[in-house]
Design a protein that fits this description.
- With about 200 residues, the protein is α+β, with helices and mostly antiparallel strands.
- The chain folds into two domains: about 1-90, Alpha-Beta Plaits, CATH 3.30.70; about 90-195, Alpha-Beta Plaits.
- The chain has six helices and ten strands; from the N terminus they run βαββααβββαββααββ.
- A five-stranded antiparallel β-sheet has the order 4-1-3-2-10.
- β7 (about 135-145) and β8 form a beta hairpin.
- It is globular.
- The mean pLDDT is about 90.
């Protein structure tokens, strides 16, 4: 899998939604290796779009499509208040089958100073306790450097996620995770678009 992460700010969330709709109509029919997208705008206009492709070659081929360039200039470039940043990775871990189109709430966590080996060990431990968190539908982690990553977690709803965070079965593991993630910023996508 290959993931492109587009991050920026917008004072017009509706323009981003319209851009996504336009991409589905104008570009997706010819898209190569496209797997799906998760997009949303958090409070303060912080916007994330996570696009998944089968592999890097597919993503590059899509970038070269004339309709992709035309769509970007017409729709996406003007939806942000300033040029967005693009981060790419083919170093992907999936949890519980990856993302879920059924999620009502998505949380994006950008971390630096991550102890990768220990995180991967704890991931295996968490899988054993997944039944204690029915609010978690799945997730993915895109490694963006030796000790940096972006986690995208999919939940049934924000209310369920907040309740799950306080569950005693999970709290010990949450503390252990937190200590290994170094500096982390959290972005809550309360009305995500998942296709």
């Amino acid at each position: 899998m290959f993931v492109q992460i587009i991050e920026g700010t917008t004072s017009n969330p509706d323009a981003l939604i319209a851009a996504g709709d336009a991409w589905q109509e104008e570009v997706r029919p010819n898209a190569i290796g496209y797997l799906g997208v998760t997009s949303g705008v958090a409070g303060g206009g912080k916007a994330f779009t996570i696009v998944r492709f089968q592999d890097e070659a597919s993503a590059r081929a899509n970038s070269e499509l004339p309709e992709q360039g035309a769509w970007f200039e017409k729709h996406l470039a003007t939806a942000y208040d300033s040029p967005p940043t693009f981060t790419e990775s083919s170093d992907i871990d999936e949890f519980m089958g990856g993302g879920s189109n059924d999620a009502g709430f998505v949380q994006v966590m950008k971390s630096t100073g991550v102890d990768r080996a220990e995180i991967e060990r704890l991931d295996k431990v968490f899988e054993k306790f997944a039944d204690a968190r029915p609010d978690i539908l799945g997730g993915l982690r895109a490694w963006t450097g030796p000790d940096s990553c972006v986690d995208v977690m999919y939940f049934t709803s924000e209310a369920d996620a907040r309740k799950g965070e306080g569950s005693t079965e999970f709290s010990e593991h949450a503390v252990a995770y937190g200590e290994l993630f170094g500096e982390t910023t959290f972005t809550d996508l309360r009305d995500p678009l998942i296709i």
